Description:
The chain is of the alpha/beta class and 389 residues long. It has 2 domains: 3-10 and 259-388, Aspartate Aminotransferase, domain 1; 15-253, Aspartate Aminotransferase, domain 2 (3-Layer(aba) Sandwich), CATH 3.40.640. It contains 13 helices and 12 strands. It has helices at residues 15-24, 36-56, 69-78, 98-109, 127-133, 156-166, 216-219, 243-281, 308-317, 337-343, 346-350, 363-382, 385-388; strands spanning 3-4, 63-66, 89-93, 114-117, 138-142, 171-175, 194-198, 209-213, 285-288, 298-303, 320-321, 352-356. The strands form 3 sheets. It has a 7-stranded mixed β-sheet with strand order 2-8-7-6-5-3-4, sandwiched between helices. Strands 9-10-12 form a 3-stranded antiparallel β-sheet. Strand 3, helix 4 and strand 4 (114-117) form a beta-alpha-beta unit. Helix 1 packs antiparallel against helix 8 and helix 9 crosses helix 12 (363-382). It is globular and about 70 Å long.
Amino acid sequence: MNVYLDNNATTPLHPEVKEAIISFLDYYGNPSSMHETGRMVKEKIEESKDIISQFLGAKKEDLIFTSCGSESNNTVLKSLLFSKNKNNQLITSKIEHPSVIETARFLKNNSIPVSFLNVDSNGLILFDELEEELSSKTGIVSIMYANNEIGTIQPIDKIASIIKEKAPEAIFHTDLVQAIGKVNINLSSLPIDAASISAHKLYAPKGLGLLYIKDFNKMKKNFTPLIHGGHQEQGFRAGTENTLGIVALAAACKALTREMDEEIKRIKQIRDYFEFRISNEIDNIIINGKNSPRLCGTSNVTFKFVEGESILLRLDLNGFSVSTGSACSTGSLEPSHVLMALYNDPELAHGSIRFSFGRENTRDDVDKLVAVLKKEIGYLRSISPLKNK
């Protein structure tokens, strides 16, 4: 039986989400249609958006449905290409999700000034660099709330305070994809201007994201739609809505409202138990980001002298699903850009494995995992040229 430990990549559907999807399958109308079949679907969308906005602590009109977190990130950042203001500098960090990193590189290649902030060995941005880079030319600062590979949580309040002091006109955007559902967040009280969210990290299906723009009607002039066309999403994101995904996300938000607080505690206990065991039973490891606040279920471990891909494959053969980093970077032979930002050491970066625990995991999973890890790490090190050089 497979033990799934890759919840930062995507989550299995919550049972209540499955039920919501099945019950909605016969609602096939286009919500833009004026007839009854379309109106029924439109009503379901509005009901769902009420539930989602309550869960997120956001005003309903400040939420824009997109296809994914990557689209939301692209929408915010690419708005700089069409900015009529001189303040079009982008400031971000070296450990952002690829959808931010690659968009930033695209903007830089199109003459937008971009600054990539360094991080310390725990993955926290360097505040002195942020202060130095901020100026009247800064248009957007995009710093993720929580890192998808190592789980580090950035001090958003402190970052917002620095931005307000040094560049009060700048827009502060945060990628919330990994944080929502794992951290108690109220968007209305978070000191940000925009945020990106993805449904499939919340035990809902893939194919739906959210773009949050605080005080949308006032702030929308600062952003440019990525997709033009119809009137959907207040005219800001064209395209027929993913009605099934929206209803499913609402069901996930309902379940999270009821379960999240206890699940955060339970998952953190499982993660801490795992780290306690491997720290005491496997030598030459590094738990990346351990000394900073982290997401409850994320444990990124470097096993020295072994390639991460080899560990992943051996674990997969034993029935464990894990990751060597961001799922969006799978297939690349390059070392993790996050781990490189922490250590600037390809050997350490290549030897990292991300274990991300979720609502379906138990301590028993950890016991089975540690037993297999001890055996497989021992074997891989016995044949490793890195260990024996």
